[in-house]
């Protein structure tokens, strides 16, 4: 994770993604009776996104058995990219309207007793910091679970404040 605060300048969220060699996917269709985001005033609540890319779950099965820490972090990053894609839609294409990320909730399909659940979710947290600088730092919960939708290895949700 970078410690530079130069990421705080507005007008560059998508450029930072491009510099990182990343792009936003199409927002995955919800796998249940919910929508990708809900807005209340300046807060946007983003529904949990699994590590699905363009219709394909890229990491399935438990972290700590089927996948190692690095793969888990990659899965969390995909979740974060899906969240940013939904956020971009909520903001009519302008991610530079982000004031800050307030909270991230991360869920890891992990083997019982897997000790690195928080490190897995760093894959999402680090991306938000890389894209938004200090505006991307957030409060967070990271939980190991017995299973996730489509046997995905990771799911992440978030709350952003926007202008």
TrEMBL record:
It comes from the Bacteria. Gene3D superfamilies: RutC-like. Pfam families: YjgF_endoribonc. Residues 15-149 form the Endoribonuclease L-PSP/chorismate mutase-like domain. InterPro entries: Endoribo_LPSP/chorism_mut-like, RutC-like_sf. Signal peptide: none annotated. This is Endoribonuclease L-PSP. The lineage of its organism: Bacteria, Pseudomonadati, Pseudomonadota, Betaproteobacteria, Burkholderiales.
């Amino acid at each position: 994770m970078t410690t530079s605060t130069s990421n705080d300048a507005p007008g560059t969220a998508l450029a930072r993604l491009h510099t990182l060699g990343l792009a936003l996917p199409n927002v995955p269709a919800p796998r249940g009776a919910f929508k990708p985001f809900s807005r209340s005033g300046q807060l946007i609540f983003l529904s949990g996104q699994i590590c699905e890319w363009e219709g394909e779950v890229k990491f399935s099965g438990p972290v700590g058995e089927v996948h190692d820490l690095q793969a888990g972090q990659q899965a969390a990053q995909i979740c974060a990219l899906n969240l940013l894609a939904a956020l971009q839609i909520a903001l009519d294409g302008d991610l530079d309207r982000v004031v800050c990320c307030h909270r991230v909730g991360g869920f890891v399909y992990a083997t019982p007793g897997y000790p690195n659940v928080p490190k897995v979710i760093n894959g999402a947290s680090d991306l938000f910091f890389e894209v938004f600088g200090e505006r991307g730092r957030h409060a967070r919960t990271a939980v190991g679970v017995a299973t996730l939708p489509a046997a995905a290895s990771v799911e992440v949700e978030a709350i952003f404040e926007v202008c």
